[in-house]
Design a protein that fits this description.
heterotrimer; B: mainly alpha; 22 helices; 3% strand; globular; C: mainly alpha; two-stranded antiparallel sheet; 76% helix; 2% strand; disordered N terminus
């Protein structure tokens, strides 16, 4: 909200000065975002550096793997099945992303949108089902 | 009906023959039939081409006969426009004559892939006829390029040892030239579009527009367009120093290929110069004339001198072509009626006599499988017929009076002498005239070493003389040499008006009327 | 209020919009069916999928034709809130893609048998890629264009890697994927900049906004402004867009991926990649650069010099690099690079001649290139790869028909008259000359001359194929070629197309002129 106000002010300023000015100024809300995004993670780290007590020990310096001592190199190759599962997960994850906003506006204030949305979403899910069926029959879901 | 579509029929008939050959090859596969079918179609084409003489009579005017005009690509204003006039008439007939002759000459020597050979030969004939009769620049370019491909194959498949090198060189050289010509053609199209509203590729429309001044090519454009055309044609001629592809191509090509190459393909260059460079851009032609004359004279002398030292008979004949074609270019750029008529006549002469020489070299090569001059000597004893023909063809090539070469060279030298297109024309004439002497030197020296003297190699004594087929295919050429040498009237009188039209177009605006009246007198005397 | 909403919402999905994309819908559904067929049918019946794909392409073509004949007087038609625009341009390009797809399927069948990879997914992927291309041709919005581009590109990444046991194929796919993704990013950056400038993703809107932004106007302080602050943004956007598109059409200096990808990919995919994908990228290029950025021609931000320089270098590099190649697929890849340069000339010309040239050339190029690759495919048999130029040695004796077809395709690629390639090149170069005459700038002439000179170089390597086939004595191997009825049919169809366009191009030119003219008018309206 604040940013859009800044943007509006900036635009107004540009118009009054005849539009002559760097186009970068129009983007400066984004610059603000960038600065905030940088400060947000850096600040806790820097603060932590000053606030926490500093005590080193050998145990602390070892690689941490859920409390178990690591047995292999960190750069290990995964079986290709992980990738297939990852891709399938991604696809259905994206499906969820699409389904959520659809579910929210599905009923809307009136029902004029419903027929369209229903049809649309069934086509979408239908295409996904074809893909799912294909992946299933191809054995992508079998682990062994 | 036949008369109205004669040119289309002439172009299509060999192609139809080629298709018939392919069909025959697919279904019957009888190797011995191919040459008969090819011969049949080419002879019919020759017979039909003689019908052209019916409308292009003696002393006929410069107009085009047998015209055909149909829209081809409307969007760019290109017409399928054919026509024949005095300039192209004899070149078409020369083509249709040389093709059956060269098919006969390859009767027994082409064994390998005979079907493809005759197919390419017939397609080549279509393309060559097309070049000489097309009156649309784009169609002309199309045929000009189309003649390239079959020739490439003929050299490349049936040629000698270095055939692939020679074929590639031939293809690249000529393709470069013709692409430049395409640029020139497109430029002309746009100039016409700019000034006359609609672009055109039609030669006659362009010529009319340029003649009447409706379309004027600015000097700088004309400079480049002229060069683009000239480059393409000079490679084809070939004019020194663009000739280097020719000895390779000739030496490696099969006999029939050499005959067609020398007899017809080289003429496309000089025909193009005459028709397009002079016809469309006369001012530039005048401006460039001195350079062309100098190059032509260098070509004459250079070709003769190099021919003299060749150890290979075929290479010698090839270099003599460079020399002879130099004469043709010299005649064209003399801008006198005599010179240009002589040039046209010399084109035919060269086709006939050099064609005959290549045929004879091919015949001896079939027997001895060598072309080195040093391997021969004293052939007159075992091969009297061969020797007689060889001597006559050589003398015709030298330009002995009563043989065809004399008429052409005399007219060219006379025209150069009378020329007002460039200064020091008498110097040019003198130097060019020495070319005739050089020709006598290298030809006679070669004859002495090949035909006369005593037999130095035992195997030459057992050579068989020419057989009936070989004599039969040489006889028409021999008759032509004699007829053209003694009675040139039927040839010159048909081409005269067309040539004069071009000549006047070139000389008209220079105010060179003085020399023109002299020429008229000369003509009356003749 | 209710009525108002009603009025709005009835437009949400009108049947008319769906009719406009009927060909694409058919192909999408058929693609899905093909995917299911793959898992339902046993391996030995996989070819049914191929025939099904051919039928579906035929159906799509029929629906495209009916779409054209029903609406040809109404063009351009906008659909889906201006996301799509169906006009002559779109119809023409879609037809080219369908032809390319049908030929590709036809030449693929035998090849996949030989490779032992006869899977239905292949045909489904080809169909999906075709859908992507077709949407590229009619997309009128940066978003729909980008999504269609990605649909096409993603399917191609998979197709390039389709022979999964081949190392070369995998390597090619990897390179193609990485560079393709990278270029998509650049393209997207350019699109976002354009959006930033114009405030809309609709190409027409962008065109108008840029026109307004560059309009010199006097502000209230009496100063002349001409969109100066927006200029760097527009410039950057144009450059980023161009760079992304140069990647897609494999123009120098972004051509590095093409030879590797073309060489490694399964040959039918190479054929489709070099024709369909390239033509689609050109459709995208043309659409954006005429409809959205056409107004920049003749201003200080003119993109023509940039495109012209790239085209000139592309022609040079493609042709000269092809000369030394030994692998025929790699050679054709470089030839494809140089051909991209030639087609760019049509864009530089930017007049109806140039556009006709682009369309005709892309059509002919699709035919002749798939034809040439079809011949190379026929050389691939079990144990013989056959993608070396010398593998064709003596083909004229072994298979005279195939050799003759290859020779004609090569001569057409070289642009010899009486072949389709000549007509295409003629219009491309002619467009440049016309433009040069109109603007009275000589660099157009020099560019045309440059292209023609380099065409001569291209003769050298095209003729090399002919040389090897006809002049070589040696027969590389005497085992019969891998031919199938479908492959033969595809080759014959390509050959007939190339020759007809070469000898009697009039109907094609007329059609192209009629359908492309609105685009030209649109591009010139800004001037």
């Amino acid at each position: 909200m604040m940013l859009s106000l800044i943007l509006q002010q900036e635009l107004a300023r540009m118009q009054t000065t005849g539009g002559v000015g760097s186009p970068v100024t129009a983007y400066w809300p984004i610059m603000v975002f960038l600065v905030v995004a940088i400060i947000f993670p850096v600040l806790p780290i820097v603060l932590g550096r000053f606030l926490r007590p500093m005590m080193y020990s050998k145990t602390k310096a070892r690689p941490y793997e859920c409390g178990i001592d690591p047995k292999t190199e960190a750069h290990d190759r995964f079986t290709v099945r992980y990738y297939i599962v990852a891709m399938l997960f991604l696809i259905f994850d994206v499906e969820t992303i699409f389904l959520l906003p659809w579910a929210i506006i599905f009923m809307g204030e009136d029902f004029t949108f419903t027929k369209f949305a229903l049809l649309e979403m069934f086509i979408f899910i239908g295409i996904l089902i074809v893909g799912y069926y294909y992946a299933w029959r191809k054995g992508a879901l079998e682990w062994a | 009906m036949l008369q109205d579509n004669l040119l289309t029929i002439l172009i299509l008939l060999p192609t139809v023959g080629a298709l018939a050959l392919i069909g025959h090859g697919l279904f019957w596969k009888r190797e011995n039939d191919y040459r008969w079918i090819a011969l049949l179609f080419s002879v019919i084409t020759f017979a039909l081409s003689l019908l052209l003489l019916t409308r292009v009579g003696e002393n006929s005017d410069a107009a085009f006969r047998f015209e055909q005009k149909t829209l081809w690509i409307g969007a760019i204003g290109s017409y399928y426009h054919l026509g024949v006039d005095g300039m192209s008439l004899w070149l078409v007939i020369l083509t249709t004559l040389l093709v059956p002759v060269s098919i006969l000459s390859s009767w027994n020597s082409i064994k390998k892939r005979a079907l493809s050979f005759y197919v390419f030969m017939l397609i080549l004939e279509s393309a060559m006829i097309g070049v000489f009769v097309s009156l649309d620049l784009l169609i002309f370019y199309l045929f000009f390029e189309a003649s390239l491909v079959p020739m490439f194959f003929m050299i490349g498949i049936w040629g000698g040892e270095r055939r692939i090198y020679a074929a590639t060189k031939f293809f690249i050289y000529t393709a470069v030239g013709s692409l430049l010509m395409l640029v020139g053609i497109i430029a002309l199209y746009y100039i016409h579009q700019q000034q006359a509203g609609a672009g055109t590729f039609d030669y006659l429309t362009l010529l009319d527009a340029l003649k009447s001044g409706r379309v004027v090519i600015t000097e700088s454009s004309a400079f480049w367009i002229f060069l683009a055309f000239a480059f393409a044609f000079c490679i084809k001629v070939p004019l020194w120093p663009l000739h280097t592809w020719l000895p390779d191509a000739h030496t490696e090509a099969p006999t029939a290929g050499s005959v067609i190459l020398a007899g017809v393909l080289l003429k496309m260059g000089t025909y193009g110069l005459l028709r397009f460079n002079l016809g469309l851009m006369p001012e530039m032609a005048r401006r460039f004339a001195p350079y062309f004359v100098v190059l032509a004279i260098i070509g004459i002398i250079y070709g003769a001198l190099v021919a003299m030292v060749q150890p290979d008979v075929k290479r010698l004949v090839a270099y003599s072509s460079v020399s002879h074609m130099g004469f043709v270019v010299l005649g064209i750029f003399s801008f006198t009626e005599q010179g240009m008529q002589g040039a046209l006549y010399q084109m035919l002469n060269h086709g006939v006599s050099t064609g005959a020489l290549f045929l004879l070299v091919g015949m001896i090569y079939d027997r001895r499988h060598t072309r080195q001059i040093s391997d021969f000597g004293g052939l007159a004893t075992p091969m009297p017929w061969f020797s007689t023909f060889f001597v006559i063809a050589s003398l015709s090539s030298i330009g002995l009076p009563f043989l065809n070469g004399f008429v052409g060279e005399f007219l060219i030298l006379l025209g150069t002498w009378l020329s007002t297109g460039f200064s020091y024309n008498w110097v040019a004439t003198m130097i060019a005239a020495t070319g005739v002497i050089w020709a006598a030197v290298y030809m006679l020296w070669m004859l002495q070493r090949v035909v006369f003297g005593r037999i130095r190699h035992g195997e030459n004594a057992r050579l068989s003389d020419l057989n009936a087929r070989e004599v039969g295919l040489l006889i028409p050429l021999l008759i032509l040499m004699l007829v053209m040498g003694v009675y040139p009237r039927p040839f010159l009188s048909r081409s005269r008006e067309s040539v004069v039209a071009v000549q006047q177009r070139v000389t008209k605006s220079t105010g060179a009327a003085g020399s023109f009246s002299v020429e008229v007198q000369e003509n009356k005397q003749r | 209020m209710f009525l108002l909403l009603q009025a709005n919402t009835t437009e949400l999905y009108s049947l008319r919009d769906l009719m406009l994309i009927a060909p694409e819908l058919i192909l999408t559904v058929c693609g899905c069916v093909a995917l299911v067929m793959e898992v339902v049918l046993p391996y030995r019946k996989s070819k049914w999928t191929a025939y099904f794909a051919l039928v579906s392409i035929g159906l799509a073509a029929a629906s495209l034709a009916s779409l054209y004949f029903a609406n040809r007087d109404l063009f351009p038609l906008d659909g889906f809130y201006g996301m799509l625009r169906i006009d002559g341009f779109a119809i023409l390009f879609k037809a080219i893609f369908l032809i390319g797809a049908a030929l590709t399927v036809a030449v693929s069948m035998r090849y996949l048998d030989v490779e032992g990879e006869q899977h239905g997914e292949y045909y489904a992927l080809v169909l999906f890629a075709t859908v992507g291309m077709m949407f590229l041709a009619c997309g009128f919005d940066l978003i729909s264009l980008y999504i269609s581009l990605e649909l096409m590109a993603l399917t191609f990444y998979v197709l390039v890697a389709f022979t999964k046991r081949e190392k070369r194929s995998n390597e090619a796919a990897m390179k193609y994927f990485l560079l393709g993704a990278f270029s998509s990013g650049i393209l997207l950056y350019g699109m976002s900049l354009l959006y930033g400038v114009a405030g809309s993703t609709n190409l027409g809107e962008i065109g108008r906004s840029i026109g307004v932004a560059l309009q010199p106007s006097v502000n209230e302080l009496g100063m002349m402004t001409s969109g100066i602050p927006l200029r760097p943004l527009i410039l950057l956007g144009v450059i980023a867009l161009s760079a992304g598109l140069f990647f897609k059409i494999s123009a120098v200096p972004f051509h590095m991926w093409a030879p590797d990808a073309y060489e490694g990919a399964p040959t039918p995919v190479t054929a489709f990649l070099s024709t369909g994908s390239k033509a689609a990228s050109f459709a995208l290029y043309l659409r954006i650069f005429t409809e959205a950025l056409g107004g920049l021609r003749g201003t200080a931000l003119d993109w023509a010099p940039l495109v012209a320089i790239v085209a000139a270098i592309t022609i040079l590099v493609g042709n000269w690099a092809a000369v030394t190649q030994e692998n025929s697929k790699r050679l054709l890849a470089y030839s494809s690079i140089s051909n991209a340069g030639y087609v760019l000339l049509g864009l530089v010309a930017g007049n109806s001649y140039g556009y006709i040239g682009i369309v005709i050339y892309l059509l002919v190029y699709t035919l002749m290139n798939i034809g040439a690759f079809g011949i190379i495919i026929s050389l691939r048999r079990r144990g013989i790869i056959g993608d070396n130029v010398n593998d064709m040695a003596g083909l004229a004796q072994k298979a005279p028909g195939m050799a003759a077809m290859m020779a004609i395709f090569m001569l057409s690629l070289g642009g010899l008259p009486a072949t389709g390639g000549f007509i295409g090149k003629y219009f491309l170069f002619g467009g440049l000359l016309q433009r040069g005459r109109l603007e009275e700038k000589s660099w157009y002439y020099w560019l045309a001359a440059w292209a023609i000179i380099n065409t001569v170089v291209s003769f050298y390597y095209y003729v090399r194929f002919i040389k090897v086939m006809y002049l070589g004595e040696r027969v590389a191997d005497d085992r019969p070629l891998a031919l199938s009825p479908a492959l033969r049919a595809a080759l014959v169809v390509s050959l007939i197309g190339v020759i007809i366009i070469g000898i009697y191009p009039q109907p094609f030119i007329d059609l192209a002129q009629k359908l492309i003219t609105p685009l030209t008018a649109g591009a010139l309206a800004f001037r």
